[in-house]
Amino acid sequence: MGNERSMWQALLNGSPRGGQDLIYPPPRRMTPADVERTRFTTTRLMPGYSMDEVDAFLDQVRDEMARLIRERDEARAFRRDSRRLS
Question: With left for phi above 0 and alpha for psi between -120 and 50, is residue 47 left, alpha or beta?
Fold first, then answer.
């Protein structure tokens, strides 16, 4: 149980995968400022933006949101489980 607790504590403190299998450098996390600064190039053939650029950006946003939701859910489950064991 102690190892599991330290893993969750590391996860809650921002360590990816609870300190296991760390990737150096850690993957850069998307910030609201990244979303605000993102600009897309316009296309010459059609009015609008490059669909490939927009799709790639939306994939990044989706992945970051999924990661945040997963971390939140894991933290909630850990908190619920630790209260139950107390």
Answer: beta
Task: Say how far residue 62 (Cα) sits from the centre of its chain.
Answer: 9
- CA nearest to 5, candidates 19, 23, 21: 19
Q: What angle do CA 34, 17, 62 make, to 5 degrees?
A: 35
∠82-69-36 over CA atoms, to 5°? 140
Angle at alpha carbon of residue 70, lines to 18 and 39, rounded to 5°: 105
* pLDDT tens-digit map of 5-60: 555 555 555 554 544 454 556 667 888 888 888 888 888 887 888 889 999 999 99
Q: pTM of this prediction?
A: 0.55
d(CA 36, CA 40): 12
